[in-house]
Write a structure and sequence with these properties.
Pfam family, one: MobI
CATH class: Mainly Alpha
InterPro entries: MobI
Oligomer: single chain
Structural class: alpha+beta
Radius of gyration: 20 Å
CATH topology: Helix Hairpins
Shape: elongated
Strand content: 15-25%
């Protein structure tokens, strides 16, 4: 196999991975906008402390692909400061993805939002996993055929998410 053919396949793989990344950002934006709305409602109705958002969705770069995972957020008092802790929830081992039981302390509205996002995210996770394996096999193919091969990190191919819950709040 020639260097040109391998490069063409690599570029197609990158294009497919980058498309999946854009879909994941859409789901993350959906999550952020709904959480922002809920937090604004809480502050307007002076419900502070009566309801919390316990989970956070992150899209993380990982070499030439990315991962999408949920984190449980808590605050711990450390002296006179509150320290924010993020504890990653293990990625699902099945193709079905996360379920409600993975989020036991979330309120019903938060679990509904998480499951809505998961309907979008789980197929993305499955596709990215497959595309990552294809990239790994392409790397081995290049090595077997003595073709010079280097990968392009995803951070050099796509733009990072610039939105935040705070930005969504300011738009409301």
């Amino acid at each position: 196999m020639t260097n040109t053919k391998i490069t063409q396949v690599q570029n197609q793989l990158y294009s497919m991975i980058d498309d999946e990344y854009e879909k994941a950002l859409f789901a993350q934006s959906l999550w952020m906008s709904e959480v922002a709305k809920r937090e604004v409602q809480r502050s307007q109705m002076k419900m502070k402390g009566s309801e919390k958002t316990w989970y956070e969705l992150r899209v993380n770069f990982s070499r030439y692909t990315f991962s999408v995972r949920w984190y449980r957020i808590s605050f711990q008092q450390h002296g006179d400061k509150a320290v924010r802790l993020s504890i990653g929830i293990a990625l699902p081992t099945t193709k079905k993805g996360y379920s409600r039981k993975n989020f036991p302390i979330a309120s019903e509205w938060e679990q509904d939002l998480i499951m809505q996002c998961e309907e979008i995210l789980q197929p993305i996770r499955n596709n990215v996993k497959t595309l990552g394996l294809m990239h790994k096999n392409l790397t081995q193919l290049a090595k077997d055929n003595s073709v010079d091969f280097s990968f392009t990190p995803i951070k050099d191919r796509v733009q990072m998410q610039s939105d935040s819950i705070q930005k969504f709040k300011s738009r409301l």
